[in-house]
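Example 9 (inverse folding). The structure is encoded as follows.
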């Protein structure tokens, strides 16, 4: 039998009926279920609200502890991860980050974890007689860089999703000096007042940004598979954008890459100078009428150049 015609208004009414499911509507109106899911998504963008029982059991993650909620209908979001800041010149990716933030004036700027390395308070033993910065030296270098990014970002939301290296600061104090709990200066956020700290960010109810989730070479695929949402992570340093499509449409597993230079001294000893499947750069999200366009990579080419949208950009 041929597909029954159904208006947008009637379809919205059917999808809002708690007794009906999308699969049931598809059978009743002789529609292809995949096509109906696609039409539902377009209607959700149009009316700016979720439709259908597919959302009925979804977790409202924006209300969970440690989450920040962003609602952005139009604009860009800059996401950089794994800065691993040491004293010295700014990395190529950081210089590009600041330059393009000034150009695009994003709605939000996200430091997606591991802003500092904190090698001296690592749970791993030191390697040989390697000289590494003190905690104070790392903190002062990071404060300089993060303040410059914050100034470039202007009125944009400035959010810092904590990474496992960042967590070393408070973990060390909580372990060896628990009596100092809640004393000003013992929390990382005390030193970076321009940045909002959290563990994860929910953007428009369908994008998640956090430092890490799944691991391994298939992390981006597994992140989007298991979260059910476009998921932006760092930690792996392997900058990539991987689409994942099912009956709910296309979402993305994204690795931000590394804001530090790949040749940074912070990495040299524990990577033993091995070849690394790492890429320096960051991610730009563009949201148009509530719809996420394909995430874009800004990738480091050499010490003074990045590539973006088919161009080489000097920084």
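The amino acid assigned to each position is listed next.
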């Amino acid at each position: 039998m041929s597909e029954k015609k159904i208006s947008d208004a009637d379809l919205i009414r059917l999808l809002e009926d708690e007794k009906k499911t999308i699969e049931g509507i598809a059978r009743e109106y002789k529609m292809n279920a995949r096509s109906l899911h696609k039409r539902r998504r377009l209607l959700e963008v149009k009316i700016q609200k979720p439709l259908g029982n597919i959302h009925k059991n979804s977790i409202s993650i924006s209300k969970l502890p440690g989450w920040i909620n962003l609602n952005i209908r139009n604009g860009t979001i800059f996401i950089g991860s794994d800065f691993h800041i040491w004293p010295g010149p700014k990395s190529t990716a950081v210089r590009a980050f600041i330059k393009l933030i000034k150009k695009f004036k994003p709605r939000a700027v996200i430091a997606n974890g591991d802003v500092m390395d904190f090698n001296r308070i690592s749970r791993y033993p030191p390697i040989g007689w390697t000289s590494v910065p003190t905690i104070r030296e790392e903190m002062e270098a990071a404060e300089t860089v993060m303040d410059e990014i914050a100034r470039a970002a202007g009125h944009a939301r400035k959010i810092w999703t904590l990474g496992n290296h960042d967590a070393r600061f408070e973990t060390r104090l909580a372990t060896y000096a628990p009596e100092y709990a809640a004393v000003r200066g013992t929390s990382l956020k005390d030193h970076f007042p321009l940045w909002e700290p959290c563990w994860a960010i929910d953007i428009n109810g369908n994008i998640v940004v956090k430092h890490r989730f799944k691991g391994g070479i298939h992390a981006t695929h597994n992140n989007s598979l298991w979260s059910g949402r476009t998921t932006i992570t760092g930690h792996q340093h392997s900058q990539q954008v991987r689409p994942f499509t099912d009956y709910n449409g296309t979402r993305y597993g994204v690795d931000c890459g590394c804001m530090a230079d790949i040749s940074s001294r912070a990495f040299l000893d524990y990577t033993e100078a091995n070849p690394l499947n790492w890429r320096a750069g960051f991610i730009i999200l563009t949201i148009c009428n509530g719809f996420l366009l394909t995430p874009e990579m800004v990738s480091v080419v050499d010490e003074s150049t990045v590539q973006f949208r088919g161009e080489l950009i000097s920084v």
